[in-house]
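Checklist before submission:
- one chain only
- standard amino acids only
- sequence pasted in full

Submission:
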Amino acid sequence: MSKKILLVDDSKMVLMMEEMILGTKKSYTLIRAQDGQEAVEKAVAESPDLVLMDVVMPKMNGFEACKQLRGDKSTCDIPIILVTTKGQQEDVEAGFEHGL
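Returned file contents:
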């Protein structure tokens, strides 16, 4: 069975680069979402094996999306990696507070 990776970013360029980097392997399926709200919906519907998510996005940011994913029984155990330039200490702490 093919593994699924959910890529979440509001930048089409970033999504395209991630797909190019990850797309060389045929052992998993890539799913796209362009904001946190869409990420939560797709995670519930698709049950990905991993989520790679940006933080700064419209509608719902990555921190809030993480909080919702951790609060849902069907998605609470999915590993989430934040792919972001927000690396200050308070951003790292916010990530842990929201369930990373």
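Reviewer check: The beta strands are 3-8, 28-33, 50-53, 80-82.
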